[in-house]
Amino acid sequence: MFGDKITLLDAGVITLFSMVVVFLSLLVISYLIDLMRVIFNKKDNKAVENKTIQQSPQPVVNAVVEEDDTELVAVITAAIAAMTGTNTSGLVVRNIKRLPDLDTTWSKTGKIELMR
Predict the structure, then answer these.
(1) Which residues are CB-contacts of 88 (< 8 A; sequence separation ≥ 6)?
(2) CA distance 45 to 42
(3) What Rg value do the Cα atoms of the chain yield, rounded?
(4) 67 in helix, strand or coil?
(5) What one-character DSSP code corresponds to residue 85?
(6) Whole-model pTM over 0.70
(7) Most buried among 21, 76, 79, 94, by the most CB within 10 A?
(8) How far is 82 from 88, CA to CA, in rounded Å?
(9) CB 96 within 8 A of CB 76
(10) CB 87 within 8 A of CB 81
């Protein structure tokens, strides 16, 4: 099959065989990692269950902190006035809603680096 000259068909067979070998070896590595995860997590889960049973539940206290938002409103009003190029006397901030922080740490770091 493989003589002094390698034909296009021979090169295709070699390429296909090499791809199959790489795919199978990656599949075996994946299964080994899954097997190790199952083996090592069984012992850890038992230890975690014992710890959670032994701990007594602590009462959760929800404290509502009232903040003075006048400074925040003034800053937001000034920022809007600066962006629009108008005077702050004509602007009224009626409602401020905090949005949940959905950014990942990577995106926060990227935004901070872009601002520098």
Answers:
(1) 77, 78, 81
(2) 5
(3) 31
(4) coil
(5) T
(6) no
(7) 76
(8) 9
(9) yes
(10) yes
Structure tokens at 17: 């065989």
Class of residue 75 by CB neighbours under 10 A (exposed 0-12, middle 13-18, buried 19+): exposed
Q: Identify residue 85 by its one-letter amino acid code.
A: G
- Cα–Cα distance between 88 and 74 in angstroms, integer? 9
From first to last of its 116 residues, what are the pLDDT tens digits of the chain?
656 788 999 999 999 999 999 999 999 999 999 999 888 887 655 555 555 555 545 554 444 445 677 888 888 888 888 888 888 887 877 887 777 788 888 988 998 888 87
Rounded to an integer, what distance in angstroms lies between the CA atom of residue 5 and that of residue 39?
Answer: 50
d(CA 112, CA 116): 7
> Cα separation of 76 and 96, whole Å?
9
Extract the tokens encoding 57: 């539940």
